[in-house]
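Sequence design from tokenized structure. All designs in this work follow the same two-part layout: the structure record, then the generated sequence. An example of the structure record is given first.
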């Protein structure tokens, strides 16, 4: 994969694909700017190496038209503050401002963006002399601004994308042992490829969250009203057979009557969930077991919460896993999405070695899939 070390940006216009798909509140204020901050090393390096102009391409949400609430104006304003230079927002590809740093309006406003339209890619390429992809969060998408344009200009990975790929591949290819994978979230089918990859390579795989219920169902346990993905039962059964002692499930749970912070709560001594109840967190003993395994790990990969951590009565399992990961002396890598949100909620986001900016992209890379945005830079 080509990197910034393979490009000479001096005096050049550089098209940089960044991931500024940031959360906004009802007043169009950014509530988490971690993705914008993640792009700063690449942008600062390009400027320090003499790039004549940076033209930034990014998306926000999934617009059906040109909805004003999905404009990148808030991102441009925040980047101006962080970068210390005026970032002009270009509303048209046909006429760009002459500013040193320009941000194109939401590329998904363009009808051909998600179709990887070659004509749109040519319009992007006409804007610049070089192309840099630093948007790892969209590297698994073959879109005009992530894949097609990379074939039309001298292209390379930015520092964020480079670090993401090398870190995640390093987990599988040369990890410090023992390698512990902690997988949670809602659906087994969303992570069966990742689960298989870690069952092949990890020393211990810990499973929590709602995705544990298809495993319990496959074992003959009662799941009550818990979220149990029916399509996940057969894959879970196959994983149990493949994983053996390596695959570890919770041994106790915390249940609630309803998915609510003020519902009736019951700590279960086991994993059978009574009718009328739903399992919403791993139990105290399970959280203690997970923390002990994580503490002894040489490498930890965590993706997915252990329960409904957004509800106070069911946050303890995820909190204790997050604290264990943050305190682990080994290499700690956390996938994006809910795991990152949990770290932020518990004030631990700065205490892990690598916090991925791409949930789906990181999982696909670990599964062994080729990411179109990365392949195009090879």
């Amino acid at each position: 994969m080509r990197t910034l070390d393979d490009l000479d940006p001096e005096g050049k216009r550089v098209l940089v694909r960044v991931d500024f798909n940031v959360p906004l509140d009802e007043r169009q204020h950014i509530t988490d700017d971690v993705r914008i901050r993640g792009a700063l090393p690449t942008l600062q390096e390009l400027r320090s190496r003499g790039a004549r102009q940076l033209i930034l391409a990014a998306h926000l949400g999934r617009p059906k038209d040109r909805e004003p609430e999905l404009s990148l104006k808030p991102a441009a304003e925040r980047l101006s503050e962080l970068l210390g230079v005026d970032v002009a927002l270009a509303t048209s590809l046909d006429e760009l401002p002459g500013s040193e740093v320009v941000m194109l309006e939401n590329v998904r406003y363009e009808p051909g963006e998600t179709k990887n339209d070659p004509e749109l890619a040519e319009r992007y390429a006409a804007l610049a002399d070089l192309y840099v992809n630093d948007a790892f969060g969209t590297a698994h998408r073959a879109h005009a601004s992530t894949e097609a344009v990379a074939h039309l200009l001298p292209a390379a990975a930015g520092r964020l994308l480079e670090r993401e790929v090398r870190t995640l591949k390093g987990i599988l290819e040369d990890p410090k042992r023992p390698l512990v994978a902690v997988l949670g979230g809602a659906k087994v089918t969303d992570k069966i490829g990742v689960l298989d990859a870690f069952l092949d390579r990890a020393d211990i795989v810990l499973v929590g969250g709602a995705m544990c219920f298809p495993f319990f169902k496959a074992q003959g346990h009662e799941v009550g009203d818990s979220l149990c993905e029916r399509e996940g039962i057969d894959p879970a059964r196959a994983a149990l057979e493949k994983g053996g002692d390596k695959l570890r499930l919770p041994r106790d749970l915390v249940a609630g009557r309803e998915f609510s912070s003020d519902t009736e709560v019951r700590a279960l001594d086991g994993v059978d969930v009574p009718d009328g109840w739903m399992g919403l967190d791993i139990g105290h003993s399970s959280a203690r077991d997970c923390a002990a395994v994580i503490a002894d790990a040489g490498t930890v990969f965590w993706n997915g919460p252990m329960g409904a951590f957004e509800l106070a009565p069911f946050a303890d399992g995820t909190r204790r896993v997050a604290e264990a990961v943050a305190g682990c002396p080994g290499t700690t890598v956390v996938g994006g999405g809910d795991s990152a949100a949990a770290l932020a909620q518990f004030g631990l986001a700065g205490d892990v070695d690598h916090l991925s900016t791409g949930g789906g992209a990181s999982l696909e890379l670990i599964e062994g899939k080729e990411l179109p945005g990365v392949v195009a830079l090879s």
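Residues 175-367 form a domain with the Rossmann fold fold (CATH 3.40.50.1260). We note this feature because it recurs in several other targets discussed in the main text.
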